[in-house]
Design goal:
Radius of gyration: 24 Å
Protein name: Signal recognition particle 14 kDa protein
Distance between the termini: 67 Å
Largest sheet: 4 strands, mixed
Structural class: alpha+beta
Subcellular location: Cytoplasm
Subunit structure: Heterodimer with SRP9; binds RNA as heterodimer. Component of a signal recognition particle (SRP) complex that consists of a 7SL RNA molecule of 300 nucleotides and six protein subunits: SRP72, SRP68, SRP54, SRP19, SRP14 and SRP9.
Number of helices: 4
Keywords: Cytoplasm, Ribonucleoprotein, RNA-binding, Signal recognition particle
Strand order of the largest sheet: 1-4-3-2
Order of helices and strands: EHEHEEHH
Number of strands: 4
Strand content: 15-25%
Oligomer: single chain
Mean pLDDT: 83
Low-confidence stretches: none
Main location: cytoplasm
């Protein structure tokens, strides 16, 4: 798919989560980027101009890759939308089974067994 604007990116990310609901994974990465080459950044630094950094966001499910950039102004709105999207699609995760603290402590004591003296 390639590079998208933030709103279409969230729509495509939603469809990725839907496709991989039963089986599969979706990887999302966030990275700070100026969207300029190293040479261009060095030129800006020598002239004293400030570099505007953006957040580069990439997502893939192994078959399809999408990406977008978000500026500092839109970051709060994007994060809120992204958090809502994650909360909606994390329902498929299984809760971890936890032991009672008393049972876990008893199990640890049984596993430890008698202590052997240290050799000197």
């Amino acid at each position: 798919m390639g590079f998208l604007q933030p709103d279409p990116f969230l729509n495509e990310l939603t469809s990725m989560f839907e496709k991989n609901r039963e089986k599969g994974s979706v990887w999302v990465t966030f990275k700070r980027s100026s969207m300029k080459s190293k040479v261009q950044r060095n030129k800006l630094m020598t002239t004293g101009e400030s570099i505007e950094y953006r957040c580069l966001i990439r997502a893939t499910d192994g078959k399809q890759k999408i990406s977008t950039t978000v500026g500092a102004k839109d970051h709060q709105r994007f994060q809120a939308s992204y958090a809502t999207l994650l909360k909606a699609h994390m329902a498929a995760l299984k809760k971890r089974e936890r032991k009672d603290k008393k049972k876990a402590a008893e199990g640890d004591k049984k596993d430890a067994g008698p202590k052997k003296p240290k050799r000197v």
